[in-house]
Batch of 2 targets.
Target 1
Amino acid sequence: MRFRAAVFALLVAALPAAAQSSLFLEDLTSPEVSEAVRAGKTTVLVPIGGTEWNGDHIALGKHNARAKLLAARIAERLGDALVAPVIAYVPEGAIDPPTQHMKHPGTITVPADAFEKSLASTARSLRHHGFHDIVLLGDHGGYIASLRKVAREVKGVLVPEAYYREMEHAGMDDTAATLAVDPKMVRDPKGANAEKGRAILDATVDRTVAEIRKSARAPVK
């Protein structure tokens, strides 16, 4: 009994260290975020996905899963970045009458102005807490203009052009990239394979890391 209690105590004692090693903001406590910023993690990546129809063979959360995975890989490569929670609700068309992806069950949409205000407030919140560079990683081409608008209006916001790669919606490359993220999200690969998807993701990480390193702003005093 004493042995089990000792093991449990060791595991509990190790939890804070494990939490602090996480790249995800939502895994950390407020003091751990403050410590990370003081230690130099002054870049925060905001992965932006979408909950939408992805053909009849890919799950609705494709963009959310891909954006989170890519953001984590990019943050790890940068070494001075954390990852904010995924923004999963984005403009996807009108509701009544339905347009764009809203014609398909499960899609969730928000107005463009509400989306932009949410992004701007997110960026200002993060700057308030000491982050210098807020990087918006948009996984969906339909709202790239909104991201650029927020970057023009809010200090410290970056939108790396290298991150987004135009692919046929739910097409071969899109399916391959989803297989590389989580094969359970794909009901029918339709000839796509995860190996090609991994190459697509690797290239995205390489390009985006290079652009962020080149574009990151100096700390604002």
Target 2
Amino acid sequence: MSARPYRSSILVPFLLATLLFLIAIRTSAQVATGDIVGSVTDSSNAVVPGAKVTETNLGTGLTYVSNATGDGNYLITQLPAGHYRITAEKEGFKTWTRPDVTLSIGDRYRADARLEVGELSQTVEVQAENAQLQTDSAQVASLVDERQVQDLPLNGRNFVQLTQLVPGATDYTAGSFSTGNAVDDRRRPSAVSVNGFNGAQNNFMIDGMDNNERFIATVTVKPSIEAIAEIKVITNTFSAELSRANGAGISFITKGGTNEFHGSLFEFFRNQALDARQPILLPTQPKAPYRQNNFGASAGGPIKKNRTFFFADWESYLVGQGQVNQLTVPLASEIAGNFNTVGLGANPAIVTPVYDPKTTQTVPTSVSSSGAIRSQFPDNQIPASRFDPAAVNVLALYPAPQLPGPTLNYVSAPSRTQNDGTMDTRIDHRFSDKSNFYARYSYNHTTTTTPHNLPTAPNGIDPVGNGGGYTDQANQAFQINEVYTLNPSTIVVVQASYTRWALSSLQTNFGKNVATQLGIPGVNVDSDSTGIAAITLGTANGVQSLTEGGFQPNLDYNNTFQENGSFQFTRGAHSMKTGLSIIRRQVNETQS
């Protein structure tokens, strides 16, 4: 099936009408930035209009300025997460300062300044811890901060696992296409359920922009842990920017550089030498392979101090892991047509009769409701002359049993391999005191070879037994962001992004006319139907079926274009925000 972008002749009039009738609303918590609000009063609790309030980012040295309004209130919005020094000053008063305030994404931090009479050169320093209660926002959310992102142990350094730490969140791999095993997404699991909602009902955002694949509803770009500054999981009282989220709004922001150079170099590994031997392996079989290497590096710092900064990271995740299976394959006697063996049927204590479908004899209706019954093959042996040539070819795909008995008589440990590469780059630049800009590019490339339960047959055909094959995924995202201060009480934010999801998931026998080779006509009619057909042996002892697994080849290509614009302003004690977001999606999906 395929889908094309929705276009409508009413789109332009609708957008014009939206622009004309947008209603300014009370500013709610930001999606990728934070706010600092407060009031400025003197020692008698009288307001101090016109006081200059300055927030200085301690990492980059960048300053953000606002003036208290006539009623003494101030607001500085669109602040990147980080540590800030806040100062308030006015002629005739001592300078008031809070030396270090931690601001996280979505925070609306209140810092009320009380000025004392004196000289500007004199300073009143106020020590304060981070506000635990966001009194200026009704949003219900949980934060995973930079220290948790960096220090908490993660299997495979998969940041999505961090979202499961928040109250109400749990793993959702059991009911999702994002398990890492589905042909739609072979990467490490990306599924999380919040407040009991389906794992496909979340809204993933990166730096405040859309980051959703729209066919199976998973995350598009997965940055390296080295690139993530903070993660916020918003579970209730969503702002307009989050739009469609029913389960959770999962917003993560990437790191930017600072005035000091920082970097990292890392390697994590696992090896089968450190693992116990799987108990179901045969004595002659070696320990199932398991080789996992996760390595990379990051660096960030100033290009020009207090002006231009960079951050970049690169990470590789390489894994080869044996998939241990205990299966049932046909006995040599079964392949020869001899079913005169106890335990081949539904009752393990008796020989199950095999009847000749070409014979019938009339019997009393008290014996058979149809009045007819087939004759049993002599000695329960199907003559070789009755074998279908295609059936003979199919049975030749099975390996010989390794263990005695009609069931669970074969153990395999094929290796699943994956090469997952991640790269992120970001440039932050201040053009002027009024203009702050950044651009980010992220790229993920994952190749996965998923094995089948059974080994390749002597004729070169893979008999499969589960949905294996080769998958190539290349996901990328580019974003630019501009915050422009028209005046201390008015800010314009303009954002644009492009994300692409490109997945090609092919069955092991793709391009091979296996069904035709086996003597089964009418199956391999084009490249999309190459491979083996789904074949289930009609025995009661659970012989492993043969199939490519279904839904392959799977070709999924998503392009998402987004443009955002918002206008924020302060008038008296009121802060307002209005804006427009346009998302155009191209979703093209082809499956067998």
